[in-house]
Design goal:
Number of helices: 23
Strand order of the largest sheet: 1-31-2-3-6-7-8-9-17-18-22
Radius of gyration: 27 Å
Number of strands: 31
């Protein structure tokens, strides 16, 4: 009997140890949210209430102290996230991830977000610098006074938090600006197609960018949006633009296991929705604004940090409640005492690639016309974590060369490994000024004030939709965008071809702020964007060759049609709408093609045809039709392009969703295209042949796992949102740190965004990173929810507590009035100035 007793004793002891460890980790994750703290640099007392979601509402006597409190509270909640963002922005991920981050750090050092931030910090005006510095002071007050209360992840990752600086906030801001400037991938894709097919054939695949509001919509087979005749140099297409010589591009090495969001070298094809309706369309008589930015939210607790900021007393009290980016002061999505605003990506083209000519007599110089000019050379050192090295790190020197246009990115930018010397020009590097506008937005009293603030936000191009309590609604694109010479902007351009331009520069100036896309109080009673092409056909400047497919915006137009007043509930439902306008156009054609085929395993194709014929085109997770449609359309798209482009180039094209999606739909609805014929066979295939072939391929891929009856398949079985801790995205222990997977409705084409990489179906990589609906007639609350929680500490109860309401649509609230904040407070902390 001794062994059973010993085994039982050992099991009990081990269970108690695990339980004690579990309780200890949960206890350690908590931090004081009550009592009093004395903080250096604080000028007056601040009261911080926290609600049952852990969201903080800081009430200060002055605006400066409110921003200081934002810095302090953000560090309490999200210090690890802030430090990771700083490492990513400044090209320092090797300090955490070792060699696997070497390529991405080299790229980001080459792009120089940290250098731009340092330069920008030096020219900030006094008020703007004070705004950023007060935030940094609050962060540093946390580091100074709460050093014993750091999240355990710092010990786990062997990270030492450094003091926060103005430059740190600005470097994250430039990093975000790069993330929104997504045209570069389109340029490279166009270049690849031209090299593979020649200019004329490649042009058959170039994007169709559609503005559904344009009174003169493009023809059925338009070219990409290009400069207008007589304005910026005539009418040009990708095929007309001057082309560099062929560029070889070996595949980039794998980046390792760090979270994808930290390792993305290019800007992603981000998407968001935002809209505002005027008072006559609102049940409360004042504007309602809705916003749901679509980003990669998979790193817990999510991208956005919600907070309420209140300053002043009595009738002079002002407030702003919303969400900002940890590490940057202010709020990006918010409702204040006077205004509300939200953002989407605008996709303005602010990036150009150039093929430089190296001086044949001196590789350290390049040619500007007849002049030989030395490359500017910077040398920087990366610190790479290496447990075998002395001190745990080793040094890796890199050399960064630049011309007057920008840094040399050959050999650094993935898919741009080349014998040519290419440089990247990026507008934010040339447009910085003494003001940025974040503080002005918080203090705004009208849409005019918001519009004025956006004049100064040059490093990021976003669609801001905003409204005020006076009843005005507006939309404005931020950022500065170049006016280009003919043929510029759509493909890499040879510098030697610019000699006839004044000073050899094809950027002739900047689009005036007044001419950037915008609207105010339109007759239809609402403004809104969904990353689609927002400019009309007669817009006088080249704006972009890249825009989101028009499907989400078309659905928004449908939902906002008419004059009936709408409630917050109505807008909340719209944000979670799963109707797929692309499927509505394509699925009936697909079904008809499949109906004509009685073959296939056990009549499978005929069954699929019946399901698709009866589908209401909603991408709901419990339905089979969305999975059938997406899987068949994936195989169909591959069949259209792969025979002529080859598997590698076809895969690159298909993962560049906005490049081909509208183009392929135009081919499908037209019914006939030479691209439908498979050139590897003697027969001449049609569109319907490819649909039937794609259906058989879909069955072969999915049936072994999901069963032979497609009626039993479920979209949510494969279309899932997987959340994870930033230090452990997968593998052993990931679940303990919060990793979990959930079925998700929607798709890349629906207002409820559920975008997945074409080559890696169906794991969701971009979706709503936040949902907010603000009714300016409701002074008590704002409806909002996150896909994670408020707090970025593993094992904290507010790390993941909003996931379920996020998925179900159950309402959650940000409180707005003093009475509502105090009535819903579950903890109160006083921050006091040091004597």
């Amino acid at each position: 009997m001794k062994w059973p007793v010993r085994f039982a004793s050992l099991f009990i002891a081990l269970s108690l140890l695990i339980a004690a460890l579990w309780v200890g980790l949960h206890w350690q994750a908590r931090y004081p949210t009550g009592g009093e703290l004395t903080l250096p640099g604080l000028e007056g007392p601040v009261t911080v209430h926290r609600d049952d979601q852990g969201m903080a509402y800081a009430h200060a006597e002055t605006f400066d102290d409110a921003i200081y409190a934002q810095g302090f509270v953000t560090a309490q909640d999200r210090l690890l996230q802030m430090c990771l963002a700083r490492l990513a922005a400044q090209g320092r991920l090797t300090e955490l991830g070792g060699d696997r981050a070497l390529g991405i750090d080299t790229l980001r050092r080459t792009l120089g977000f940290h250098r731009l931030a340092r330069r920008h910090a030096e020219i900030l005006g006094d008020d703007e610098r004070d705004f950023f510095q007060r935030y940094a002071d609050g962060v540093n007050a946390y580091l100074q006074t709460q050093a014993d209360d750091l999240p355990f992840e710092f010990t786990l990752a062997k990270l030492d938090p450094e003091p926060w600086t103005v430059e740190d906030s600005l470097s994250i801001l430039y990093y975000m600006g790069w993330g929104s400037a997504a045209d570069l991938k389109h340029q490279l894709m166009a270049q690849d197609l031209v090299e593979a097919l020649g200019p004329q054939r490649a042009a058959e695949l170039f994007p169709i960018n559609i503005n559904p509001d344009d009174p003169a919509p493009p023809a059925a087979d338009p070219s990409p949006q290009t400069p207008a005749d007589g304005v910026d140099g005539g009418s040009s297409t990708f095929a007309d633009a001057s082309m560099p010589s062929p560029i070889s591009r070996p595949a980039a090495p794998a980046e390792g296991l760090l979270p994808d969001a930290l390792l993305e070298p290019y800007a992603a094809q981000l998407g968001s929705n935002n809209w505002a309706v005027g008072g006559h369309r609102s049940a409360g008589g004042k504007p309602i604004l809705a916003g749901d930015p679509h980003l990669d939210p998979r790193m817990l607790p999510g991208i956005w940090h919600p907070i309420g900021l209140v300053w002043g007393d009595g009738d002079g009290t002002l407030r702003a409640v919303g969400a900002g980016v940890p590490g940057i002061p202010g709020l990006t999505v918010m409702r204040s005492s006077h205004v509300a605003m939200s953002v989407t990506n605008a996709y303005g083209d602010v990036q150009d690639l150039y093929v430089e000519t190296v001086d044949p007599g001196d590789p350290g110089r390049y040619l500007e016309g007849d002049r030989s000019v030395p490359f500017e050379v910077r040398r920087e050192v990366l610190r790479i974590r290496d447990d075998d090295a002395e001190g745990g790190y080793r040094e890796h020197p890199i050399e960064i060369r630049s011309t007057r246009r920008g840094p040399v990115v050959t050999g650094v930018l993935p898919k741009l490994r080349s014998t040519e010397t290419l440089t990247l020009r990026w507008a934010p590097a040339e447009t910085m000024g003494p003001d940025i506008g974040f503080a002005h937005a918080l203090l705004a009293r009208s849409v005019d004030d918001i519009d004025g603030a956006l004049r100064h936000l040059t490093m990021v191009g976003l669609n801001f939709v905003f409204a005020d309590v006076h009843g005005d609604i507006a939309w404005r694109v931020s950022g500065r965008q170049p006016i280009r010479a003919p043929g510029a902007g759509v493909v890499p351009r040879r510098v030697e071809d610019l000699t006839e331009l004044e000073d050899g520069d094809d950027w002739l100036g900047w689009i005036p702020f007044e001419e950037m896309p915008h609207a105010r109080n339109p007759g239809r009673g609402w403004v809104g964007t969904a990353n689609h092409l927002t400019i009309p056909a007669d817009y006088p400047h080249y704006y972009t060759s890249l825009a989101a497919s028009s499907y989400r915006y078309r659905r928004l137009v449908q939902l906002l049609a008419g004059d009936d007043p709408l409630t917050v509930d109505d807008h909340w439902r719209m944000q979670r709408d799963t109707y797929n306008t692309m499927a509505a156009a394509v699925a009936p054609i697909m079904a008809t093609a499949l109906e004509a085929d009685s073959t296939g395993p056990d009549g499978w194709i005929a069954q699929v045809a019946r399901l698709l014929s009866d589908w209401d085109f909603h991408d709901d997770p419990e339905r089979p039709e969305p999975l059938l449609f997406q899987e068949i359309y994936r195989h169909f798209a591959s069949a259209v392009f792969e025979d002529e482009l080859g598997p590698e180039l076809a895969a690159d094209l298909l993962d560049n969703l906005y490049f081909w999606q509208e183009r392929l739909q135009a081919m499908v609805t037209a019914g006939d295209s030479p691209w439908f014929d498979d050139r590897t066979t003697e027969a001449v295939e049609t569109r319907d042949d490819l649909f039937r072939h794609a259906a058989r391929e879909a069955f072969g891929r999915l049936a072994p796992d999901l069963g032979a009856d497609p009626g039993d398949w479920r979209w949510g079985d494969l279309h899932r949102l997987s959340l994870h801790h930033p230090l452990r995205p997968s593998g052993f222990g990931a679940g303990l740190l919060g990793a979990q997977s959930h079925p998700l409705g929607g798709s890349g084409e629906t207002l409820l965004r559920g975008w997945y990489a074409f080559g890696d179906p169906y794991e969701v990589t971009f979706t709503d990173s936040l949902r907010m609906v603000a009714d300016l007639a409701d002074d008590e609350k704002i409806r909002a929810v996150l896909p994670g929680g408020v707090v970025g500490r593993a094992f904290h109860p507010h790390q993941t507590d909003q996931i379920e309401p996020y998925l179900s649509g159950e309402p959650r609230w940000w409180w707005f009035s003093d009475d509502a904040i105090e009535a819903n407070a579950v903890a109160t902390q006083r921050l006091l100035p040091a004597p």
